[in-house]
Amino acid sequence: MVSKIRKCKCGRYTLKEICPVCGSPTTYSRPARFSLEDRYGKYRRITKKTES
Fold first, then answer.
1. Long-range pairs for 37-42 at CB < 8 Å and ≥24 separation?
2. What phi and psi, each to the nearest 5 degrees, are found at residue 39?
3. Distances (CA, A) of 32 to 3, 22, 29, 41, 46
4. What letter would DSSP give residue 25?
């Protein structure tokens, strides 16, 4: 699970894939939080296996 907030090179945060200010692509601000009770871990591992 990834947060919806994205960060641009110019330092601004947005929800869009392209920065509305400078026009460069954005990336996710940080990785998802780790939890031992990961409800979706099973599905992520299945998806990762099928994509490889």
1. 40/1
2. -75, -25
3. 6, 26, 10, 12, 18
4. B
Residue range 6-51 forms a domain whose CATH class is mainly beta
Q: Which two tokens stand for residue 18?
A: 């392209």
Residue 45 CA from chain centroid, whole number: 17
Per-residue pLDDT of the chain (52 residues; tens, 9 = 90+): 566 889 999 989 999 999 999 999 999 887 777 788 888 888 888 988 887 6
- Is this structure's pTM higher than 0.70? no
Q: Are strands 27-28 and 13-14 parallel, antiparallel or unpaired?
A: unpaired
Q: What distance in Å separates the CA atoms of residue 7 and residue 14, rounded to the nearest whole number?
A: 6
